[in-house]
Amino acid sequence: VSMLDLYRLEVETQCVYLNEGLEKLRQTPDDIEPLNILMRAAHSIKGASRIVDMHSSVTISHHLEDIFASCQQGLVKLSQDHLDLIAKAVGLLAEFSQMSDDELLDYHEKEQQKIESLSQAIDQISSESVKQEEPAAQVIAVEEKQKPAKKPGKKPPTKPTTGPVDGQDRTIRV
Fold it and tell me: What is the DSSP letter of 76?
């Protein structure tokens, strides 16, 4: 058994999980559990691809992994069209698992542009489907900008004092 055979076996196995996870997301888009499965499967394919230097497979699985991570963080909400595009990428990965060594190496060289286009389309999902709700960090930044400026007043001491301040004794309760 060669390393490419192991790669094909891993990709074939993980594509089953990817397809099942995508189907679950189609049925219950708000369920987070399929995202965990999808994330692990994409990560496994990426690792197997790196071992055998299948850069195209690494690229696709990496972009899928990024999308699934963004979904897990609530930054991206996938539409049915997005799921169709992801299914197309999974289909391409599944094709890799069925190719002979020569076909596999030849495909990766000849179809680099197709693979790059698909990867860019997957990346585009992030910018198209950012949730309408603003992330908390953006809301806080807007609120900070809207706060009135602090009025100039008495400046606090710049270094701790040990004695009375302004002639008054201070008591600290613990």
Answer: B
